[in-house]
């Protein structure tokens, strides 16, 4: 049967009837997108500064990405890792070439939570130990091991009974990590910038000291770059960046922006870790499928070809400048186009709603003071102006 309904009320009622209500939704039905804009079932245009949970880094329907997916769909949609594939070989090579020195191998999966599950498993295989240290305010996904590693809000509770061996340190405090880091700890896993917690970043010294501590005590350092990776911060990765004291972790996990919306996740790692992973130790049916790999290649090419890393850095500066001195804005957090606007009061949800009324999509966070922006990296100055003018009116 074909779905013939087109207006918002009917679409919303149908979803409400046939889909589990697990998300608080905005009252719009998205139909098509171009760049930083979404068009709705009612023909209205919304400026999208949220990118569908940080996924649309190349913008909606980037022509190069769309063309690559179309072309691959006509050749071969999928075959598993039981065969070699040129498009997969190119994706792995390209991804590794974007990563900081020392990162040499990719493992493909399908989502962020799965990337984190595999990363923890890789660390356990490398060290022969079981425990994992994560942090207050961190979010790592909703499957069993990843949700057990998530100490933000109530998520961990949702995953009960939790996987044992997960320890919680204070984000930004090296002493709290050192106190937990005994000979049973396989890895320290962190979001280098905690996005859902309200775009929280540590002092660059923290990352440096973490690397030192991990080396000293034989623990693997894992960066969950599901949000910060693939250009979001104006660098390919937070790993290796100046803001992170040039620290290179042992494993980087990715998803979200990596396929511009085609589901794909990845773990990137070193030769040393790879030496401990044997045939059949890790796997997933869909990981490395041709359609996803075509999306990865085209995403990386689009970011590079359109100078999006530089654009993210330039527009971060422009946005910070435009928000300077705005009444009600206490601070602007984050890096590149992972932005947390901290208000003096707990008004982020209200501002989010008011912006939506002005047809601008933004995100909230677990901190009621902080509005989050995760826009496409192809955002334009005039789009920043639209947002800043609307925010000024609202505040
Ligand atoms: C930092 C971080 N890690 C992991 C995940 C889980 O990713 P996924 O929803 O693709 O499983 C998310 C999702 O929001 C995330 O923000």
List keywords for this structure.
395 residues, alpha/beta, 16 strands, globular, binds pyridoxal-5'-phosphate
Summed up, what is this model?
Helix content is 37%, strand content 18%. It has 395 residues and is α/β, with parallel strands linked by helices. Bound molecules: pyridoxal-5'-phosphate.
Describe the structure.
The termini are far apart. The strands form four sheets. The protein has a seven-stranded mixed sheet with strand order 4-12-11-10-7-5-6, with helices on both faces. It has a four-stranded mixed sheet with strand order 1-2-3-15. Strands 13-14-16 form a three-stranded antiparallel sheet. It is globular, with a radius of gyration of 21 Å. α12 (308-323) packs parallel to α14. It is built from 14 helices and 16 strands. The protein has 395 residues and is α/β, with parallel strands linked by helices. It has helices at residues 8-18, 51-54, 63-75, 86-98, 112-127, 144-148, 155-158, 174-180, 204-217, 271-274, 290-305, 308-323, 348-357, 381-394; strands spanning 30-34, 37-40, 45-48, 105-109, 131-135, 166-169, 185-190, 193-194, 200-201, 220-224, 251-254, 265-269, 329-335, 338-343, 360-361, 370-373. The relative contact order is 0.16. It binds pyridoxal-5'-phosphate.
Category from helices, strands and their pairing:
alpha/beta
Number of helices: 14
User: Overall pLDDT, averaged?
Assistant: 97
- Biggest sheet features: 7 strands, mixed
């Amino acid at each position: 049967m074909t779905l013939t309904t087109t207006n918002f009320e009917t679409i919303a009622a149908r979803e409400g009837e046939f889909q589990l209500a697990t998300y608080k939704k905005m009252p719009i039905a998205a139909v098509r997108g171009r760049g930083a804009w979404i068009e709705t079932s009612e023909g209205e245009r919304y400026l999208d500064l949220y990118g569908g949970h940080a996924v649309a880094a190349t913008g909606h329907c980037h022509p190069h990405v769309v063309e690559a997916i179309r072309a691959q769909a006509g050749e071969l949609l999928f075959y598993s890792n039981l065969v070699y594939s040129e498009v997969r070989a190119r994706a792995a090579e390209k991804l590794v070439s974007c990563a900081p020195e020392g990162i040499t191998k990719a493992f493909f999966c399908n989502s962020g939570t799965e990337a984190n599950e595999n990363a923890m498993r890789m660390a356990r295989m490398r060290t022969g130990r079981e425990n994992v240290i994560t942090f207050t305010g961190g979010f790592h996904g909703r499957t069993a091991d990843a949700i057990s590693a998530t100490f933000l809000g109530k998520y961990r509770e949702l995953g009960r009974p939790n996987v044992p061996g997960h320890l919680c340190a204070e984000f930004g405090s090296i002493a709290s990590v050192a106190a937990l880091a005994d000979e049973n700890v396989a890895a320290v896993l962190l979001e280098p910038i905690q996005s859902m917690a309200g775009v929280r970043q540590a002092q660059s010294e923290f990352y440096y000291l973490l690397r030192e501590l991990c080396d000293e005590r034989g623990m693997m350092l894992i960066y969950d770059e599901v949000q910060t990776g693939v250009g979001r911060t104006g660098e390919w990765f937070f790993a290796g960046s100046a803001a992170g004291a040039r620290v290179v972790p042992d494993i980087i996990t990715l998803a979200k922006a990596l396929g511009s919306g085609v589901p794909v996740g990845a773990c990137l790692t070193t030769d040393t870790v790879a030496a401990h992973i044997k045939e059949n130790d890790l796997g997933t049916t869909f990981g490395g499928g041709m359609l996803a790999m075509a999306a990865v290649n085209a995403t990386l090419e689009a970011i590079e070809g359109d100078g999006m890393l530089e654009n993210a850095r330039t527009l971060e500066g422009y946005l910070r400048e435009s928000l300077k001195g705005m009444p009600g804005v206490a601070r602007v957090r984050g890096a590149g186009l992972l932005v947390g606007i901290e208000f003096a009061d707990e008004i982020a949800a209200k501002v989010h709603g008011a912006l939506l009324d002005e047809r601008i999509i933004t995100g909230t966070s677990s901190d009621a003071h902080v509005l989050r922006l995760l826009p496409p990296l192809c955002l334009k100055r005039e789009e920043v102006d639209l947002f800043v003018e609307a925010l000024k009116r609202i505040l």
